[in-house]
Write a structure and sequence with these properties.
This protein has 611 residues and is an alpha+beta fold. The chain has four domains: 182 residues, Immunoglobulin-like; 91 residues, Zincin-like (2-Layer Sandwich); 189 residues, Neutral Protease, domain 2, CATH 1.10.390.10; 88 residues, Pdz3 Domain (Roll). It is built from 16 helices and 29 strands. The strands form seven sheets. Strands 5-4-8-2-1-12-15-14 form an eight-stranded mixed sheet. A hairpin with a 2-residue loop joins β14 and β15. The protein is globular.
Length: 611
C-alpha cells in the first residue's frame, strides 16, 4: 500500500513537470497601437530559478553594429499567475532582472519603432522596425519586438500576431491563419524566430517556384508606383541563373523577399537590405520598375546567395549567436565577400551582364578597397569589426569579393578548369550544413584539405596575413592584364562636377573647369540631366551610364544629352550634343582581356565566365 502511494506521488510530481509550460508564447498586438507603440505579451515557460534575466538583442546577425533594441522597450512588467507584479531591475539597456522568477507567468511591455526614432545611434532600416497603424503597414524584424529569458532561448517559440482584417503577414515562416485577424507562427528557438522578419500590409504578393523552392515577393509601395509582379519580373531571371549557379536546385523550401518602399528622406539617410537565412528585408526609395529594377536585381542577387553562407556554411560564433555580447567570426570574407562576388559572377556567367562590365565591377571593387586599410589582415578586421575596426566593415564588399575572385581563379587554374569556388562551397555545405558549425581556426586547413596547397597558402598569406592580393599573377591565369596604374586615352565628360538635388535628380553643379568637349556641349551650371545617349538618367543608373561611356566610348562618337534648364524664366528641356573627345588619363587599377591569351588562359577564362 505504501509502495503504491509512493508510486502515485512520484507520478503526480512527474505529471506536474510534464504539463509545465515548455514554450515561449508571444503575442504581438497590432490592433491597439497607442502613441506609435505596440503591446507585446509573453506567457513564459516554467522557471525554476529565483532570479532570471529577460534580454532583447543588442546586436543581431548580419548588421555588425550595435542596435540596442532595449532602447525602444517601455513599461516592462512581470506578473505571477495570480496577477501579482514581480520586482524587476533594469540592469542595462537590453537586460532586465526578474526577482521571484519561480512565480513568473507573464511578461508585458510596449515597443516603439525605429524607423522614425529621434534617438541617437540610428538603426539602419532593414535591421529595424516600423509601426504605421494609420497606413496599415508594419515592418516586424522579430528581434526588435521579441526578447527571451536567458537560458530559455533554445526552446520553441509560438508567435501570435493580432492584426486588422485585410492585412497579410508575409514571411519565410510557415504559419497558419487562426481567424481573419489572428495569425500563428512557430519557431524551434529564438535564433530562428529572430531570423524571420514579417511584413504586414495590404497584400501585394507574387509567388514563383524556382529549383523546388517557393519564392515569395511581398511589397509595400505607399504611392503604388511598383508592385510585386513587376519585382518578380526583375528577379526571376537572376533567380533562375542562381539556381543553375548553385548546381540546378536550391537548398531551401521557401524564400521571401520582403520589400518596403519609402518616399522622402529615410531616418538613416541610406537604403539597402538585410539578409536572413530564408528571407531578406529591403528598404528602398519608392520609384517605378524602370528606375529601381537594376538596384532590386543587384541587391536581391547578393542577399539571396546568403542561403549558402552563412546558412549552410558558418562558424560557431554564428551558429550559436550571442545577441548581447557576440564574439565575431574571422571569416567575413566568406559570409559577405564570397556572397558579393557570387552575386556579380552569376550575372556574367549566365549572360545577364557583359564580360567587359564584369571586369569594370572588379576594377570598381579594387578602387573601393583602396579607401580602406590595405595592410590590415582581413581575419583580424573581421574578428574586431564591432569595435576596433568598425570603420573597416565596408571592405567586406570590396576586398572580400576580390578575395573570393582570387580563390575562384586559383581553384580553376590548379584544376585546369574543372573545380571552382562554387564547387568548394557545395563541398563545404556537405561537410558542415545548417546544423554543424566550423571552428574559426580550422577553416583554412579544411579548405586546403578539400582543394590544394596553393589556395591554402593564399588564404594564410593574403587573408590571415596582411600581404596585398596578387592581382597581376592571379588575373593572368584567365588571360587578363592588370596594372596598378596606366595612362590611357579615355572619353571625357567635359570636366563638369555633378551633384544630386532634393528631388534625387543629377545636376551639373560646376562648369568652371570646362574643357573643349564641355564647351562644345554647352553645359550650364544647374542643368538637370534628363537623359544621356538616349537613356533616362536616374540616381540609381547614373554612375553606370557614365562609366559605360568612359570605358566603351571612342573618339568621334556622337554624344547626346537632354537637360532641364531655366530659359527665360521657364523650365524647359534642352538638347545638347557634340562628338566625343578623349584625353590622356592615368587610370588606377587598369584591367582588360589580353588579345593574345594562350590556349590554357582561354580555357581558364571560359571556365571562369561561362556555364
Amino acid at each position: 500500500m505504501k509502495f503504491k502511494l509512493l508510486v502515485l506521488i512520484v507520478f503526480l510530481l512527474l505529471g506536474s513537470e510534464l504539463i509545465a509550460q515548455k514554450t515561449n508564447k508571444i503575442t504581438i498586438d497590432l490592433m491597439t497601437v497607442v502613441d506609435d507603440k505596440v503591446n507585446i505579451t509573453m506567457i513564459t515557460p516554467q522557471v525554476n530559478e529565483s532570479e532570471i534575466e529577460f534580454q532583447i538583442p543588442k546586436i543581431v546577425p548580419g548588421t555588425y553594429s550595435i542596435s540596442d533594441f532595449g532602447r525602444f522597450v517601455n513599461d516592462f512588467t512581470a506578473y505571477a499567475e495570480n496577477g501579482d507584479t514581480l520586482v524587476v531591475e533594469n540592469l542595462t539597456t537590453n537586460r532586465w532582472l526578474i526577482k521571484n522568477a519561480n512565480r513568473l507567468y507573464k511578461i508585458s511591455y510596449k515597443v516603439d519603432d525605429t524607423f522614425d526614432s529621434t534617438l541617437d545611434n540610428v538603426v539602419f532600416e532593414p535591421g529595424g522596425t516600423n509601426i504605421e497603424a494609420d497606413k496599415d503597414v508594419f515592418v516586424i524584424n522579430t528581434f526588435g519586438f521579441v526578447g527571451y529569458l536567458k537560458g530559455y532561448d533554445k526552446i520553441p517559440f509560438e508567435l501570435t500576431i493580432k492584426h486588422k482584417e485585410g492585412l497579410y503577414g508575409a514571411t519565410s515562416m510557415f504559419g497558419k491563419q487562426i481567424d481573419k485577424t489572428t495569425d500563428a507562427f512557430e519557431a524551434p528557438n529564438y535564433f530562428d524566430l529572430a531570423d524571420a522578419p514579417v511584413l504586414y500590409a495590404e497584400p501585394d504578393t507574387t509567388t514563383l517556384n524556382v529549383g523546388g523552392a517557393e519564392i515569395l515577393v511581398s511589397l509595400y509601395s505607399p504611392n503604388k508606383t511598383l508592385n510585386s509582379k513587376e519585382v518578380m519580373g526583375e528577379v526571376k531571371e537572376i533567380l533562375n541563373a542562381q539556381k543553375e549557379y548553385l548546381g540546378g536546385s536550391l537548398p531551401i523550401k521557401k524564400y521571401a523577399f520582403l520589400i518596403y518602399l519609402f518616399s522622402g528622406q529615410s531616418n538613416s539617410g541610406s537604403y539597402g537590405a538585410l539578409e536572413h537565412s530564408y528571407s531578406s528585408l529591403y528598404f528602398l526609395p519608392e520609384a517605378g520598375v524602370e528606375r529601381i529594377g537594376q538596384v532590386v536585381r543587384d541587391v536581391a542577387a547578393h542577399e539571396f546567395f546568403h542561403i549558402v553562407t552563412p546558412l549552410s556554411v558558418h562558424a560557431e560564433q554564428i551558429g550559436d549567436f550571442n545577441f548581447i555580447e557576440p564574439e565575431m567570426s574571422e571569416h567575413l570574407w566568406l559570409y559577405e565577400g564570397v556572397t558579393e562576388y557570387a552575386a556579380n559572377h552569376v550575372q556574367v556567367k549566365y549572360d545577364l551582364i557583359e564580360e567587359g562590365r564584369f571586369l569594370e565591377i572588379i576594377r570598381e571593387k579594387m578602387f573601393g578597397s583602396s579607401r580602406f586599410n590595405r595592410d590590415l589582415a582581413f581575419t583580424e578586421m573581421s574578428a574586431n569589426v564591432l569595435d576596433q575596426y568598425e570603420d573597416q566593415y565596408g571592405n567586406v564588399y570590396e576586398k572580400g569579393a576580390l578575395i573570393a575572385m582570387c580563390a575562384d581563379l586559383i581553384l580553376l587554374n590548379e584544376s585546369n578548369g574543372s573545380y571552382d569556388l562554387q564547387q568548394l562551397m557545395r563541398d563545404l555545405s556537405s561537410e558542415y550544413g545548417t546544423q554543424k558549425a566550423f571552428k574559426d581556426e580550422e577553416l583554412f586547413a579544411k579548405i586546403e584539405a578539400l582543394t590544394n596547397k596553393k589556395l591554402g597558402d593564399f588564404l594564410k598569406t593574403h587573408v590571415a596575413g596582411n600581404k596585398r592580393l596578387p592581382f597581376t599573377e592571379i588575373l593572368n591565369y584567365a588571360g587578363v592584364d592588370f596594372a596598378e596604374e596606366k595612362e590611357i586615352a579615355v572619353p571625357t565628360l567635359g570636366q563638369i562636377s555633378l551633384n544630386v538635388n532634393e528631388d534625387r535628380e543629377i545636376f551639373i553643379s560646376d562648369v568652371s573647369k570646362l574643357n573643349s568637349f564641355g564647351e562644345k556641349m554647352g553645359y550650364q551650371e544647374g542643368d538637370v540631366i534628363v537623359s544621356f545617349n538616349g537613356n533616362e538618367m536616374t540616381i540609381e543608373n547614373g554612375n553606370t551610364l557614365f562609366q559605360e561611356f568612359v570605358t566603351k566610348g571612342k573618339e568621334g562618337d556622337k554624344v547626346k544629352m537632354v537637360v532641364k534648364r531655366t530659359i527665360k524664366g521657364k523650365l524647359k528641356n534642352k538638347k545638347l550634343k557634340a562628338k566625343a573627345e578623349t584625353e590622356l588619363r592615368k587610370q588606377p587599377y587598369f584591367i582588360e582581356f589580353k588579345t593574345n591569351a594562350s590556349e590554357k588562359q582561354l580555357k581558364i577564362r571560359k571556365a571562369w565566365l561561362k556555364p
